[in-house]
Design brief:
Blueprint: H1 2-33, H2 42-61, H3 72-98
């Protein structure tokens, strides 16, 4: 059973790092959006390619007008915080129980 516990713990660790990385990417994209970035900049293009698949569905669900303010990154960050609190912790707890 220790192999299964190690596998679940490794999955939880990797998922935690991925969610943390994505959290930072969303923060950086939100901050850069305040300064009207050059859309042809490779960093801006990377940030858009990485975050658009998550932000676009949230933007569609939040059709209301907030005075030109896009709150989809805030919602995405809250979802990431929930996943880190619930899913990653649950996986670590499961790994602890499998030992």
């Amino acid at each position: 059973m220790f192999l299964a516990a190690n596998l679940v713990e490794a999955l939880a660790t990797v998922l935690g790092f991925i969610l943390e990385f994505y959290w930072w990417v969303l923060i950086i994209r939100a901050l850069i959006s305040w300064v009207n970035p050059d859309p042809f900049n490779p960093i801006v293009q990377f940030l858009q390619r990485v975050t658009d698949p998550i932000l676009y569905p949230i933007q569609r669900m939040m059709r209301s007008d907030w005075g030109g303010v896009d709150l989809s990154p805030v919602v995405a960050i809250l979802i990431i915080l929930f996943l880190k609190s619930f899913l990653v912790r649950s996986l670590f707890d499961l790994a602890r129980q499998l030992r």
